[in-house]
Design a protein that fits this description.
Helices cover 6% and strands 63% of the residues. The protein is mostly beta strands. An eleven-stranded mixed β-barrel has the order 2-3-4-5-6-7-8-9-12-13-14. It has a two-stranded antiparallel ribbon with strand order 10-11. A hairpin with a 2-residue loop joins β4 and β5.
């Protein structure tokens, strides 16, 4: 009973995060469609067998139809099994982001993972709270310097009898917890039209849905491969304000939030390979 209650509580966390989301008028931009690939290598070190594990990972992400190295992640993670069905962990990632130039970001996260078995079926639910800090110049009227997010991942896997394969599927949502609140911007008559004395980071909304279908292949007790297809559906909110808190483009009519609020949906589908070595 306790396991079911915890599982349900973890599943309801993102609903609480989305409670502030409101329907706003905005200008819809043309959606972007991309393909790409992801490659990562993992080293798992067991400190206390079946309880305390260290994980080191290097990941490369390629997008723009396999033509650009978009990001690299260098991560270190610690995970502890506090109960046979419940794990707790923390992770740090050093991120190199290739935008107009290479930018450095730091990400820290804390997560809980609950797992339930039913025969050869495995069900897991992970809640991850993360903070991503940007070291480059950021317009704080468009995005916070440190972005807070809540990720919820539900995964189902099946251990195929008599084989080394374990196919799986998972769905993951990401909620932005501290977006710039558009309703704080005030409309004036005359030049500028919209302005804001200071930004408020209290807008929460779903900004990504990720789906992944793949299979793990256990080469040996220490070596494991993961082949998968991944799809990301992203919701990007662009607030057209300068770093001084004034509207960049002065529209001639008051059309509400659509004067300065732009939304671009982007869709990504890619192939991935992951390798894990266990010590």
């Amino acid at each position: 009973m306790k396991r079911i209650m915890i599982f349900t509580a973890m599943l309801l966390l993102p609903l609480a995060a989305a409670a502030q989301t409101k329907d706003l008028d905005y200008t819809q931009q043309k959606p972007v469609f991309e393909t790409g690939a992801r490659f990562d290598a993992n080293l798992q070190v067991s400190i206390i067998p079946k309880s305390l594990v260290l994980n080191f990972q290097e990941e490369l992400r390629i997008d723009e139809n396999f033509s650009r190295l978009h990001r690299s992640y260098t991560s270190a993670e610690i995970e502890y099994k506090i109960l046979p069905w419940l794990k707790v962990g923390a992770e740090y990632s050093f991120i190199l982001n290739n935008s107009a130039k290479w930018e450095i970001r730091h990400r820290g996260s804390f997560f809980l993972t609950e797992s339930i078995r039913a025969g050869r079926w495995k069900f897991s639910l992970r809640e991850r709270f993360q903070a991503t800090h940007r070291t480059d110049s950021v317009n704080t009227y468009q995005t916070p310097k440190t972005e807070l997010s809540l990720k919820t991942r539900l995964k189902v896997a099946y251990d195929v009898p008599g084989s080394h394969f374990e196919p799986y599927i998972f769905a993951e949502t990401r909620f932005l917890l501290n977006g710039v609140r558009p309703s704080r911007f005030i409309y004036y008559e005359g030049p500028g039209r919209w302005a804001n004395p200071y930004p408020e980071y209290s807008d929460a909304y779903l900004n990504r849905l990720r789906l992944r279908l793949g299979t793990e292949y256990k080469c040996s007790k220490k070596n494991e491969l993961d082949f998968y297809i991944i799809a990301d559906m992203n919701y990007d909110l662009d607030i057209d304000f300068s770093s001084k808190g004034n509207q960049k483009t002065d529209n001639t009519s008051d059309t509400g939030y659509a004067d300065y609020l732009f939304v671009k949906n982007s869709y990504f589908i890619g192939l991935g390979i992951s390798y894990t070595f266990k010590l």
